[in-house]
Specification:
about 30% helix, disordered N terminus, Pseudouridine synthase, alpha+beta, eight-stranded mixed sheet, TruD_pseudoU_synthase, EC 5.4.99.27, tRNA processing, about 350 residues, four-stranded antiparallel sheet, single chain, isomerase, tRNA pseudouridine(13) synthase activity
Length: about 350
């Protein structure tokens, strides 16, 4: 497969068992389109103007700087909900103080187009989005591979995907987490606050991905082998293994799992594993994984045994993250005359479309 970045640079475990599908995927404005889904409807009145903009070949930061310079606004006064890919066509919403309305109306740029505007009461804040809709075009797809992709999409529609952080999280060379680890261990000093935080966030993300990959691997072993063999390989009690094998979903929930209602809700301990695993299969709730830190809820029992290896208390702030997500509104279209396979889907905020593609084409 040819691509701009290695989608699985850290050798994360896939949960689907098909062989690699050799196609062409490149992140560019024609083959990768991201459309932000706002968290709420905008009011139509207020001291901020919400601009729906379309950008190409620019990061969100670059686009915001161009807009700020053009209209004479301070960068910090522009609100946005999330950062969007540079190597894509992206549509998102930003907020600008109403005093710049005249300059907004006359703004032009070859890589940024203002599609519509509406007034709103508040500045848009980070995280104020429901999710994102993606359009992706894969090229050099044979008829046989198109069928394999369709089969993979069918399983993803039923079971979802591991909610790994994408390669974008780890920097251009995929090694920002190594600098974060060095900062945590005291072997690297980084005086620039924003860079230090970026490296630490990358290390937290790496630990989460590593934990999730291990759990996917264990789940695959549970599905593939008899209880006695699993006891020897993983060190789990045979009664527990039988419980886990009975779970319909390919990601096996463990006793003591910290769950969250899906797509949002409170975090709680899974008391009745059989009941909660059934609700997980029905997309009503999902297990969560740890972004380590001093102030964060910790799982219990067997789930905590598999989590503690990745729990570094040296981070100030930790969090729980969905271990699994369910792509929604999945549609696909195979253009045999061009050997193109086009697909679209939505994901909740914080999830990566590149991980959907990685799971599909391995």
């Amino acid at each position: 497969m040819e691509e701009n970045t290695n989608l699985n640079k850290h050798n994360l475990q896939y949960y689907l068992n098909h062989s690699k599908i050799d196609v062409l995927f490149k992140q560019n404005k024609d083959d990768f389109v991201v459309t932000e889904i706002p968290l709420y409807d905008f009011t139509g009145e207020g001291e901020h103007i919400v601009v729906k903009l379309r950008k190409k070949d620019l990061s969100t930061w670059d686009a915001l700087q161009i807009i700020a310079d053009s209209i004479g606004c301070k960068l910090r006064d522009i609100g946005y909900a999330g950062l969007k890919d540079k190597n894509a066509m992206t549509i998102q919403h930003i907020s600008i103080p109403k005093q710049f309305e005249e300059k907004i109306n006359s703004f032009t740029h070859e890589n940024i187009k203002f599609l519509e505007t509406i007034n709103h009461n508040n500045k848009i804040r980070i995280g104020h989005l429901k999710g994102n809709k993606f359009f992706i075009r894969l090229k050099r797809v044979s008829v046989m591979d198109a069928k394999k992709i369709e089969q993979a999409l069918g399983k993803i529609a039923t079971y979802g995907i591991p909610n790994y952080f994408g390669v974008q999280r780890f920097g251009a060379y995929g090694d920002n987490h190594e600098k974060g680890q060095q900062i945590v261990e005291g072997t690297l000093k980084e005086k620039r606050r924003n860079l230090k935080q970026m490296y630490l966030n990358a290390y937290q993300s790496f630990l989460f991905n590593s934990w999730l990959s291990k759990r996917v691997e264990i789940s695959k072993l549970i599905d593939a082998f008899e209880p006695k063999e699993i006891c020897e390989k993983v060190g789990l009690h045979q009664d527990i293994v039988k419980q886990l094998k009975a779970q319909v979903h390919p990601f096996k929930m463990l006793p003591g799992e910290l769950m969250s209602h899906y797509p949002f809700g409170k975090i709680f301990i899974a008391e009745e594993l059989e009941v909660e695993s059934e609700k997980f299969y029905k997309k009503d709730r999902v297990p969560t994984g740890l972004l380590p830190g001093k102030r964060v809820k910790i799982s219990e029992g067997l789930a905590q045994e598999f989590e503690k290896e990745f729990d570094k208390k040296t981070f100030e702030d930790g969090a729980r993250r969905f271990a699994w997500v369910f792509p929604d509104e999945i549609e696909s279209n195979y253009k045999e005359d061009k050997n193109w396979f086009e697909l679209s889907f939505t994901l909740p905020k914080g999830s990566y479309a590149t991980q959907v593609i990685s799971e599909i084409i391995h």
